[in-house]
Structure formats: structure tokens, C-alpha cells
Amino acid sequence: MNLTANVYSLTSGGSSSSSSGASVNSLLSRRRHRHRRNLSLGAPTGTSSTEASPLSTLSLDRKTFLRQKQTKQLQASDRTWVRAELRRGCIHVHDWLSPSYPRPVLCTLDTSAAEVASSPSPALFLQLHGGAVRRLADDEAPLQILNDYLAHLGFDDPWRVQEEGMNPEIGCLIRFYFGKPRCVGGSERVQLSGVFNVRKGKLALPVNRWSRRQVTLSGTCLIVSSVKHAHTGKMHILPLIGGKVEDVKRHSHCLAFSSAGAQSQTYYVSYDSYTELLRWHKAASKIASQRVNSVDLSCCSLEELPTQLFYSQDLTHLNLKNNFLSPHKGVPALTRFCQLRSVSLANNALSHFPLALCDLSSLSELNLSGNYLSALPADIGTMHSLQNLLLDGNSLSWLPVELASLEGLTYLGLSFNCFSSVPAVLEKLRGMERLCLAGNHLSVLDVAGLQWLPARFVDLRLNRLQKVTSLDTGELLHVVHLDVRDAGLQQLDVSSLCRLELIRCDRNALSLLRVNGHALKALHATHNGTVVQPTPENLTVLDLSWNKLDRVPDWLCDCSRLEVLDINHNCVSELPVRLLSSVGLRKLLVGWNNMCRLPERLERSQLEILDLQHNLLMELPHNLFIKAQSLRYLNASANKLEGLPAASLSEEASGSLEELYLTNNNLTDKCIPLLTGHAHLRVLHLAYNQLQTFIASKLARLEQLEELDLSGNRLKAVPTTILSCQRLHSLSAHSNCINAFPEVLQLPEIKCVDLSCNELTEVTLPEALPPKLLELDLTGNPRLSLDHKSLDNIRCFRVDPSSSAPCVSENLGTPAIWSHSYTEASGLKNKLCVAALALDSFCGSREALYGVFDGDRNVEVPYLLQCTMGDVLAEELHRGHKEEDYMTNTFLTMQRKLGTAGQRMGGSAALCHIRHDSLVPGEHGGCFTLKTANVGRCQAVLCRDGKAVQLSTVHTVRDDDEYQRIRQHNAIVTEDNKVGGVTECTRIMGYSFLCPSVTPRPHVSTVTLTPQDEFFLLGSSGLWEVLSPCEAVEAVRNVPDSLAAAKKLVTLAQSYGCSESLSAVVVKLSITDDCCCFCEPPPPPPSPGLATPTHPYEGGIPLPPVSSGTVSELSSEFSTSEMSSEVGSTASSEEPLPQTEPITSHLNPAGRASARRPAFGGGAFQRQFSGALSDNGLDSEDEEPIAGVFSNGSRVEVEADVHCLRRRDGTNAPLPPEPPQTPPPCFPSPGAESRSGTLGRRARANGSVARQGQNQDVIEEAGDAPIRKQGGYFNAPSQPDPDDQLIIPPELEEEVRQIIQQQQEQQQLQTHNQQTHNYQKTSDYFVTPL
């Protein structure tokens, strides 16, 4: 079988107007040699590629595009051939001219790139995660590369790897090209080029005339050809560094380029469009504003340097990172730059040192990190001007002796190499200041050997130091900075380093640390058991958190220069009297200890920040605020306080306290009058105390208040004097007994109001809402009567769903086995970067799905995960092969979905799936199991018999197995302990550019639910930074309402110091012995038309039930046509292939269709979250919302009902009648929720609130889509680039107008004929206006 010939070519779809379109294209093609045009990307492809493709004025509609795409898909016979053997497979190859249309190529593991290309030119290229493009060698096997990539991603099953390789959407992660694509390689970044009207000199002189010339912006220069053709004649070079780029007002679309200096010259360039002018102005202004002659050509897929770059002879700094320059091709051309001082060749896959670099005599900085160098040549000793040499992330194990001749070398980076000892040649580099050997194979720290090294800064972190040899006699005078974090040390004696100023020894197993304290200024020794000897006299910063200290060393009181002391998470029971009165101490962190009291009487203190949370304090010193006049921040949450000290000696005096956190104490109403002395108070948290009233007159005196939290008390009202707090922007008073709506909406700065879980009966709204109001949460008020119709235009409301709204939980009123509630809170800059997924009925009444997603500071990623992860999980369940891997495959598939959406950022995720498993196959009795999977720092915890059971694991570089894995892929851990400087987690969603070091393969755990299981929690990453699993379980165990429990977790986290976005899901369980022993009617037999496949994935992806919301995902959605290179952008995607209604209605897998289908008419499905949102779109106040349509910048989201199978004409497809079924009494009814489970509306990051949907799918369509279309969630195509529009020269304009007019007349005639016969056919294309 000829594998290389089995490539499918694109054929044009037949249409009634294809001949007329071809005539237009052919007529314009005859003049293409005379005029240059910027062509449209949406050109229809005719039978002749030479005529139809280059010049096209007609753009395809989606129907024709799908038909042409279908001709390039794998046929059934090809899939059968591939599945017959594991060594076979398929790669999708994109053409370098039209990368949007991938072509499948059948091959085996032995098929080479030369055989796939079938000719030397064009060659086969490889692109990973939308980055640089690499040329494949002729002997490389593309299918083996694809399989290895998927295996490193996390797929274990070879059959699943084979199936994933046949999916064209995998191109968003790994893509093959026939020839180097034009859109990749940075040709647009390297230069801007075109033929424009150019004039030299002053515009006022009539001697100079406009001439048509080739103009190129490359490097640091503007290049203008002296003749019309650029490749002949002389080139005029205009250096732009320090020059000017100005817009000429007297001429339209004209820029003036001027060089710097006394002999400056000026060129005027007139552009054809305003868009072209903006592009050139932006690029040229960036060059002109530079102070040095630097050029950035990183990530341009360069194999050799661009020719135009050599016109910049004064180039001094050149960045060539992340390219594919070889030592024999590309790098030797650098010798043509005689003034080059800095070169970066990092991540260029160099296998040996380029000798051409030794000829650059002026080079002072060289970066060769991230390559595959195993040795350095002896010629490196000739580079006498070299000062900084970066060799991190290579395979070096020794250094040549000639390196000693580099007397000017001050910095040498050797981290993450293969050194087993400190190279001896370093002793001769007397000018070296920094020695970086982190991440090597050092086993011995020879302190005595440091005396021969001149380096002042030594970095030895992430080694495995098993032994430390100390210096017997003498002292070392030159080492001032020592970093030995994560080195596995048990004892460390560096007392001989008498001038050591900073030492970092975090996360070791130290039991004894000896330092010379005469010069020591900063000591960081977290996660140890540390004793410091002798006393450091000049210490300013001391971090001893997460140790086992039972008391504070007495010598700390003698450190008069100590400014910051962190002893959080220890076992300290009391503080020395002199410590709080230390003259220099400004910041004291003593949270999470065992302190029962503080010194009663304090002397004058200079403290500004005091953290006392999570102790056993019953009172604070009575003169704390009087003596600590500089105190601005006090956190005494999670103690047993019953009162507060006086703020000052008199009522007129006031302290400087600005933030006061007293959550989770035993404070009563008596403490309220004591707060009035803090006139500068901005933040006040009094949640979860025993307050019953808040004296109105006292609240009126807190005029500077901006944030007030009174949640979890017994308040019946909020004082009306809150109107005195004109700066208040956040009020939280949930979980109280408030029965009257406060007048808080009259405050001008108010943004967030949370009055959920109270006893409100009515809400009084002002005529005009505050302009900055983002959220008003009124959920959990059962007696609140609202007219939901009157609230339709108010976007910021969160209310319980109307009792008249259809809900699947109303059928028969069966008791629920589980119920849930969740809450979310925005973080910095009011950005909501978290999302929750909660489905009490998922794939049937015996299943449920819950999840929490955290995008760190990214808004789009969590919402993408929220909207698609449930559908992907349902898809994996219906595959029916190796069900124990369905959770893992769900996360791995979501990595592809994020790539399809154009997302390069990532986030954490935790997913919990409850399902009923039969004890014996074929029988219907069994038990409920809870399967949990997580990546990143989102975690889940189960409460079993009152104790916390951890269900999740966080993978970081601190784990030995994970560290070894990422080092196998040559990853670098930066000083902030992040992989590649991006993320601390080695397993997390997204960040595909860090693959395979960072993978989305989750940690999966399975537990069998028992009657002892009370509830389980899911929380975002910020929640677990301040709350331990045991504390979280204990905090909400006695809270009966799940919404109040979720609110409490978020409130506690905020009061404990978390400033990030937060999300918490609480799922109450009511598991009984009877719930695991029920029987149900047997599932219906499979359809006679569906044969059972023998191959594990032979049938492809079975169609899920209609109500699962995954029809679109299983219908071959559009794969991404173009990868976006910008972080957070949205790439174009495709629409699922059309399916006939009988297939969608009847071909459901046995046993699941009836379980997921709603019982009431219309097919609505209860939905608890909005679609994927973006913070880069229009603000909520910019325009009125359209019902069912959500805008998010570059795309539009449309809520469409896919469960009712609506036709194009708006009618519902007939559904087969279903007999009524009575669920077992112990089933959770489909969609059964707690009273406050559904939030109705949820605030988005820009302040708008999405309506509660009635289905499980969100469809994104192009902004001009005339109708709703059937399908699932996918990303809308990117907005068209204004530069990619057809440009018609003036001399052809009239002729083109006539052609278009004739075309329109023919279309109108055809339309009239069709209407005469009562048949209307959709046009295959639309005429593009010129």
C-alpha cells in the first residue's frame, strides 16, 4: 500500500453559482501581474487552484466551508486500516499556503519524514503548541513523534494514543506542515515590507517628487530602494535609533521617518490605508524609542538570519532565543556585525558550541541556555571581552582549563547541568562574582573549598547535599550570599563565613544551623527544625515559619535592627515581653501557634503589622493600641477573644489602624463602642462572632470605612447610619437574621452587597442603581418575594430562581441523596478568575458531577473548563473502554480543547464524579463511588465520621519524582521555585508551551461512599492556602445549609489573608444502606442497527444522550485553523458537521438516554453557570444586553437549546414519546438541589450577570450569524483582520463594480426562479462588499 500517496486533496463543493464565481476570479486573475492585491482569507477554492485561490472576491459561508472540510476527513476504510495494528496511525499535515485545511496522511511508525513529503521540497515541518516551527530531518518518523508527544502528555493506553492521533483537533498542540508556513516564522515580526509612494527631503520643496519604491522596515533601519524593483540598484539606509516617526497631517496616510544626529535625513512614505499606517507607525516608533541598537528575533523559527538584518551594521544587542540556528548555518553570519555586544542563542537545540562565536571580539554577554551542549571548546579562551556567560540547562559535566583566561568574567551560569563537583577551573576566575550550580549532581558541600572561589554569591539549591565539610581554621571573607534551598540538608555549619549577609536554607531537614551572626542581615529557614547559633547582631529579616519551635529564642530581643519576624506555623506558646517593644521591629507574624496570652503591659512599640490569627488568645493587651501608635494592620481572627482594648486614652484621639480582622471569635456587642476610636479604619471584619446589634451612632463615626464584613452573626438589621460611610464599596452580611433591606444602595462607591441567607421579605430599590454596583446577592432568603420580570434588566442581581420556573427536581418530590451549593468571590481588581461546576443529575439520576476551576489571574480559562469539562467527561463515559481511565482522559482531552480555544495560559482544576457501580456485572444492586481528579492547587476533601479525608494531591517541584521527571525534559526551575518561571505546579491544565515538563495528567482517587460520609468540599487554590482540610471540615460540619457553609468557607479565607479569587462547593450527602441496594428496570436493548465493535475505539465516539450537552463535541467540531500566538486570545474554530434529526433522536447508547433526558416538555435543563466569559470585551455598561447573547470581546456567545433539536425554521423536532417512569425512592431526583443551590445569576468580571440558562450547552457563533444553529460549545472564529481585505486599484474599480453588479443580477434572477417553484436554497457564498 502506498502510504505517502494517500493524501486527500481539497475539492470544491458544487453549487449553482460556482461558475459565475470562477468567471469573476479568472477575470481579476488576468490583471494580477499589473496590480498587487491583499487577498481575503475566506476565498472559495475552485477546481483550478491557480485561478481561484490567488484572487477571490467571494467568501464562503459556513455550509460550504463544512462541505469542503468533510472532503479532507478520514474515511471509514482508512480508520479501519489504522485500527488493525498499533504501529499504524495518521498524521494531519497542513499546507504552507493554506494551513487552515489539514490533510490526513496514513503512515506507520517506520514512515520517515522524507517519505511523507515524497519530495525534497517542500520539506516536512513540525510545530509544537503554536510556537516555533522546526524542519524535520529526513530520517525522523512523524508518527513516532506524535505518539511520543501524546505519551508524554499523559495517555497510557496505546490504542487511545492512536485514536487521539487521528483527531484533527490535535493540531492545536502538535502540527505538521508541508513546507514552512507563511503565518509562522516571524516574517511579519522580522520586517514590514511593501511598495509605497516615497518622497525624500522637505515636502515644501517642489524639486522632490513622489516615487513608487520598495520600503522595508527591518532590524533598526528603514530601507528604501533607489529603483522600483527592490532587488536591483542601490539601497538607502535610514537608521531609526533615537530618531522620530511622525504622522503627517497635511497628507492622508503619510508618515515621516527621521534619523538622529546632525546629519539627519527624512523620508516621507504614503500608505494605501489607515490600517497600514498604524501598523508601520507602531513598529517604527518602538525602534526609534530604543536607547540601544537592539533587535528581538526570538520565536521566529529562523534557520538563518534574514538578509535585511545585515543593513543594521550598528547592531549591538541581538536576541535569537527559541529558533533553530545551527552552528554551521545561521550562526556564522553573526561575524558580520562588528559591534555586537550581546547575543542570546538560548533554546536553539545546539548540540555543540558554535566556533564562530569566538570570532566576535566585542561580545560581552552570551546566552546559550537550554541547549544540548556537552562540552566547551578550548577556543572559548579567546573571548577576552566576555563578562556574562549563561550555560544553564545543558549537559555539561566539565569545563576546559582555557576558561581561566577570561579575566573579565563576572557571572557564570552553570545551573541544571551534570556537574558532580565544583569545577577546579573556577578557582582561577578571580573576577567572578556569581556562581550558579543549582540543580546539578553535587553531593558534598565543601565549605573549605569555597575559600578558593572568588564568587560572592553562591547558588547550590536543588542539589542532593548529603555531607557538609566545615573549615577547621580561618574565616572566609568574600561569600555574602548562600542559597541551599531544597538540598536535603540535616545540619549546616557555615559559621566560618564571617561576612555572610543572606542565607536561604528553606525546605531542608535542618536540626542545627550554625551561622556567624556578625554580618548576617537576612535568614530564611522555613520548613525546618532550626536552631541558630550564635546571636546574629545585625539581623533585619528572619523567617522561621513552618518549623517546630516551641518558644521564641531569647536572643531575638537583643536584635535591635530586626524589622521583620515570621514565626507562623510553629508551636510557640508565649512571646517575650521585650519582643513586642523592640525598637526596630515593624512586622511580626505569629499566626498558627499555641499562644494563650500576650504580655499584659507593653512599652512603646513601633509595630506596623501584627498577625495573631489562629491562636488561643482570649484577650489582647489593654494598652496595645495606646502604645502601638504606628499599628496599621491587625489580624486576630480565629482566636477566643471576648473583648477589645481601648483605641486611645480619650475619645478625641485616634490611632492609625487601617485594617482590623476579628473574624471567628467570641466578640459581643460590648466591643462595638471601642471601635469608634479608630477613625482611619478602612477594612473591618467581624464575621462569625456573637453580635446581635450594631449601634447606629458608632457606625456613623467610621467615615473612612471601605469594606465591612458582618456575616455569621445574629444581626437583625444594618444601621441606617451606614450612609455616613460614603467610601464603602463592599458590604457582606450574609448568614444573619436581617429582615429589612438596608439603604446601602444609596452609597456612591458601593460595588458588592451580600445579604444572602437572611430573613428578607422585600427589597426596596432606588430609582437609579449605583453606577459602580457589580453584585447584589440575595440568595437564600426563602421569604423574599420578588417579581422576576421586573429584575430582568438588572444584571447584578443574584436571586433564587422563581418558584414558577420549570425545574426537573419538582417531579414526584423524591428525597435527594446529595445536594449542593457553591459560592464565588472576586479577587484583586474585582476580577473573578474562578468558576464552579455543579450538576446534581449528570448522565442519569444515579450520577452527579462537581468541579472547581481556578485560572490564577486569567478569567477565560476557568469558564472554558466550566462549560466544556462536563461534556468531555460524558464523552469519555460513553467510550466504554477501560472506565478506570475516564477521569484521566477527561483532563487530557481538555488540554486539547483549551488549545482549540487558542488559550496558552492554564489553571487548576478539581473534579468529583459520583456514580453508582454494580457489585456484580449484570445486576442492578451496588454502591455509590466518588472519583476525584485534580491538577494544580484546587483540592477536594471528604468528611467521613467527622474527620477530613484528603482526596487530592498537589504536585510541585518539591516532590522528588516530579522533579526528576521535569529534569528529564531539560526544564529549568527559577529562583522563585517555578518551572520555567511560570508555575509552581508540575501538573496543571493548559500551559502547553511547557509540555512535556508540565502536564495535565491528574491525580485520581476513588472512595466508596458509606453512611458515615457527611459531605465533601471542593475549593480553589486560594482557599487551601489559608485553610487546612481539617479546619475547613470542622468549620462547616455543623452548618445545616450548604449555601451558608460555602459562604462561610470563603468568608473565613478572606479574613485569614487571602486576596485571590475564591470558589467553594459544598455537597451534602445522605447515603443510607438502602441507597446501595435498590433495583431499577433493566436498560433497553441496544439498537439493532448498532454492531458491537471489537476494537476498543472502533466505533469512534458513540453519541451521548441528547440532554448531556455533548452532541456537538461528538460531532467533529471544527478544529482550530490558526493557532493564536498571543496569550489569552481566541483562535478560530469550526462548527460540528450537520446531523440528521433521526440519528440525534434515536441513536443514543443504551441505558443513558432516558436517564439524562428531562422529564418535562421542551427539553430544558437546569443550568447553574454561564458560558465562557472574557474580561477583554465591552464593559457591561456599554450597551444593553440581548436576551440569550453574551458578548466577550472577540466573540459572541449565544445560548441555544440543543435538547429540543430546533430546526432552522424555529420548530421543534418531534421526539419519540416516553412512558412515565417512577424513580426509586432513594434516588436523587434529576437536578435535585438544595434550597440555595442555584444562584440564578452570577456576576461576571466586568460586572454583568449572565441569566440562568435552561440547557447544558453554550454555542459561540460569529457576530453576524443570522440564526441560531444546532451544536455544542465551540469558539467563534477570530475577527477578520482589517489588513486582509481586498484592495482594488482605482483604474480597476469601475470594471470590478460592473462585474459584481452582473453577479448580483444573476443571483437575484436565480432567487426569483426558486421562489416561483416554492423552494428556497441557501447561497453557498456571500458577495463581499468592496
TrEMBL record:
Which residue windows does the record flag with biased composition (Basic and acidic residues)?
1196-1210
* Domain named PPM-type phosphatase: residues: 819-1069
UniProt keywords (A-Z) are: Leucine-rich repeat, Metal-binding, Repeat
Source taxon at top rank = Eukaryota
| UniProt biased composition (Pro residues) | 1214-1228
Is Secreted tagged as a keyword? no
Question: Which GO terms fall under molecular function for this chain's record?
Answer: metal ion binding
Q: This chain belongs to which protein, by name?
A: PH domain leucine-rich repeat-containing protein phosphatase 1-like
Q: Could you tell me the gene encoding this protein? A: LOC114462010
